[in-house]
Amino acid sequence: MSTALLHTGSQERKALISKKKLLPYWLLAPGIVWLIIFFLVPIYQLISTSTQTQGNGIGTYVQTYRFANFIDAITSSKGQLFRSFEYAFLATTFALIISYPLAYAVAFKSGRWKNTLLVLVVAPFFCSFLLRTVAWEQILGEQGLVIKTLRVLHIIGAQGHLTATPFAVVAGLTYNFLPFMTLPLYASLERIDIRMMEASGDLYANAIATFRKVTLPLSLPGVVAGTLLTFIPAAGDYINAELLGNPGTKMIGNVIEARYLEIVDYPGAAALSLILMVSILILVMAYVKRSGTEELV
Amino acid sequence: MVGASFSVHGDLTLTNLTKNFGEFVAVNDLNLVIPEGSFFALLGPSGCGKTTTLRMVAGLEESSSGSIAIGTADITYEKPYRRPVNTVFQNYALFPHLSIYENVAFGLRRRGVKDVDAQVQKALELVELTHLAARKPNQLSGGQQQRIALARAIVNRPALLLLDEPLGALDLKLRRAMQIELKWIQTEVGITFVHVTHDQEEAMTMADTIAVMNEGEIEQMGSPADLYDNPRTSFVANFLGQSNLIMGSIIGGSGREKVVDIFGSKIALPVSRNHAHDSSVLLGIRPEKIRIAAAGSSMYGNILQGGVVSDASYIGVSTQYQVEMPWGQELMVFEQNDDGTPPLAKGDPVVISWEPIFTFGLPGDQDAGAGSEANPDSE
Amino acid sequence: MNQLTRWFSRNLVRIYACVGFAYLFLPIIYTFAFSFNNSTKSNLVWVGFTWNNWRNPCGAPDICNALGNSLKIGVLATFLATILGTLMAFAMGRYAFKGRPIINILIFLPMATPEIVMGASLLTMFISFGFNPGFWTIVIAHVMFCISFVVVTVKARIASLDPRLEQAAMDLYANERETFRRVTLPLVAPGIAAAALLAFSLSFDDFVITNFNSGDVNTFPKFVYISAQRGLPPQANVIGSSMFLIALIIVLLGQFVGRRRAGVR
């Protein structure tokens, strides 16, 4: 063993250090290359496509730097754009109202059932997203028990529906993104030292004051992460509007999907995609700045 | 004897060892020789650089300059896994995914040592935890984890065992028991132990030699008794136990004793304990060395008249007094409750005295309060 | 009465949680129940109980082809994304290097981009480079959006690792490689497993990005979406329910193993 204890030369050490300095880049390289080629380049192409115009024949486009595409896109679908943000906002709010007590109960009131309950919170996520949405469609649909009961009780008239309404779309969005809200909330609540809540009670705060002044502020990072993780996918979603809505509840995602896959208007679809992406990014930045959380990842 | 030993051994020598973290100098030009086979303690308040020194010796931190050697082998730039040095980490750092047995066997397996089983068994016997070999670290109490961390390190028979605040996480009673046990194990295995702590009592109980560190430098090094009875700096006088430090000036004396004037009283100071550079001196005396009696009682040795008891607390084995002196300073006096006389009360005029040999002198330009706020025992 | 209100207020959060769980599980229970429905065409009305759908889950045309594709894509995408993402997580969690903030943004962006934008832009690129969408374009797309989630999950695990454990291994004569193999990797493994599970469920469940980049290759979500228009066969409920049960068993098993590894009895 003593022979191993040779002085490592300073030359060798320098080489080692520079090798070490390159190591993180080697580790990052494959993933970063993947993200550049299959995420950044497509986004760049999307930007480039957004100012093109129709060439000869369907599906061929030439770059004309026609920025009016954006104006056209906004004027033709501003209703759907605003509706998307409205529905996403509502769904995020409802998800927060539903998830917070749920996460709170799992974190503080579940005793030795904590881990099991946590699994149960995520469990619906394991069943296909589309299947669950279809299930809601059928539960609330014309053949379902819910609507029949409500009609018998005269809560809803004979002509009333539950599906194909804005209510159903928002409910679907809320339901589908619930785990994205619950998990970050749970993670930040779970980290709170229960003694802080006890200390607050000791210092003459009642349950409500303790919640407002101690628990809620300490769980704020979870609230920020949860609302972002719910709002972003909800704003871009089109499945819920497609399956649970009617022509009057179309969201921006439906428009983009149709322009790409049905009308084959790539520049218009690209312009709308960019508008959606940029408006989400701006909203997210403003929100993050306001809530004072820097570390997102 | 436990484990297969290394052929590198000898004294640990730190030469001009320095560590900077940016602008901050954590360890400043440290020179230190720790003799082979000794139980050595690095004692100091948190942030004094003791842990950084330890980590540099372990190879977990690279020194900014200077060198580290064991015997004749320079290990300054050696990888941690190529040093004959093992560490008992603060909070133990036992591998949670491995059994106790595999934790202890870890180092032996990495070194490709034969008869791992026999050596692990011996190490577990040494710390009396053979019956827990199959358990996981989470299933052990703090004291048991501490012993496993120790077994995991000494099973390798390193030239040097480093202990980083090893008893910090244990309660007081367990800590006392472990102090005695650690000392016993060190004698048993004969490995050099370097022990880092902020707890002066822990250092004094276990170590042969203590180095007191402050702000990246060694203030004083010596045996526990030497440090306690003959401190060279006000930091050591205050950090290690408690001291009364009184400003005075040397006005004469013979070859063996100096005479110091403090506010009109003549006090004898042994020359061997005088560390003042000139006539300006901070005169030191430990509170338990002082005798106290009602004013007018006859006294011998060094005597200070005119005190008044400003506070008295009875704590069983002794009574602790605060005595206000005519010049306004409060002195601490610890009196053993062994002579049957009733304790003095607040407001009583008193006279105090002590044997001249217990007096020590520090340079007069030092801060009389240095180190007292870092001492957890003083208020 | 007073006692009742007190009990109610004390257990308010628990009651609320029960209602919440009921809401979460209602569609799952519905899906499970209707997998036993003895319906011939559309599975909308309860006809009667039967085991037939479970005996013959491939009974509906093309359903098992779609399921097979989804499983193949899921496994491939999970495998690649977990490797790439774990490597990145180690770089992000362990090293200080130049360009870190930019990389952080690049990792965050795919999670902040609506799926439809990613799906559409990727299709635009494939078309402009003359790539026909199909099986491999789906795999590529799935790896792309799974990477970020893997990085975040594994990085969190690495960050929670006590650095002293690795130092202790180095102190006990394990060189860098051995330290990684014997200490770091086993301790990060639960995080990697969780990330892989997440990646698989994201891939298996994805419809939007897949729909854009699949050409005429069918996947299970695509099958559900298309057949939902005219009525879903009960076999889809069988497959959905079994995926749900399998995932649940894997997670519960993982928890059990994790607890045993940590030595909690």
Structure description:
The complex is a heterotrimer of chains A (297), B (379) and C (265). Chain A has helices at 10-49, 68-108, 114-122, 129-140, 145-152, 166-176, 178-190, 194-202, 207-218, 220-236, 239-244, 252-261, 266-291; strands at 52-54, 61-63. With 297 residues, chain A is an all-alpha fold. Chain A folds into 2 domains: 2-40, no CATH class; 78-265, MetI-like (MetI-like fold, Orthogonal Bundle), CATH 1.10.3720.10. A two-stranded antiparallel ribbon of chain A has the order 1-2. The two termini of chain A are 45 Å apart. In chain B, helix 2 (100-110) crosses helix 3, helix 2 runs parallel beside helix 4 (142-154) and helix 3 (116-126) crosses helix 4. Chain C has a domain at 63-219: MetI-like fold (Orthogonal Bundle). Helix content of chain C is 77%, strand content 0%. In chain C, helix 2 (12-34) crosses helix 12, helix 4 runs antiparallel to helix 9 and helix 5 (100-112) packs across helix 7 (135-159). Chain B binds chain C through residues 58-60, 79-82, 85-87, 89-91, 93-97, 106-107, 110-111, 135-139, 152-153, 156, and chain C through 162, 164-165, 167-175, 178-179, 182-183, 186-187, 261-265.
Low-confidence stretches of chain A: 1-10
Instruction: Look at the structure and name the CATH superfamily of the largest domain in chain A.
Output: MetI-like
Number of strands of chain C: 0
User: Biggest β-sheet of chain A: count, sense, barrel?
Assistant: 2 strands, antiparallel
User: What name does the CATH topology of the largest domain in chain A carry?
Assistant: MetI-like fold
Q: Proportion of β residues of chain A?
A: under 5%
Task: Give the CATH architecture of the domain at 63-219 in chain C.
Answer: Orthogonal Bundle
Give average pLDDT of chain C, whole number: 87
Protein chain pair with the most extensive contact, residues per chain: A-C, 82 and 84 residues
Order of helices and strands of chain C: HHHHHHHHHHHH
Shape of chain C: globular
Termini distance of chain A? 45 Å
Descriptive labels:
heterotrimer; B: 379 residues; alpha+beta; Rossmann fold; OB fold (Dihydrolipoamide Acetyltransferase, E2P); 2 domains; six-stranded mixed beta sheet; five-stranded antiparallel beta sheet; 8 helices; 34% strand; C: 265 residues; mainly alpha; MetI-like fold; 0% strand; globular
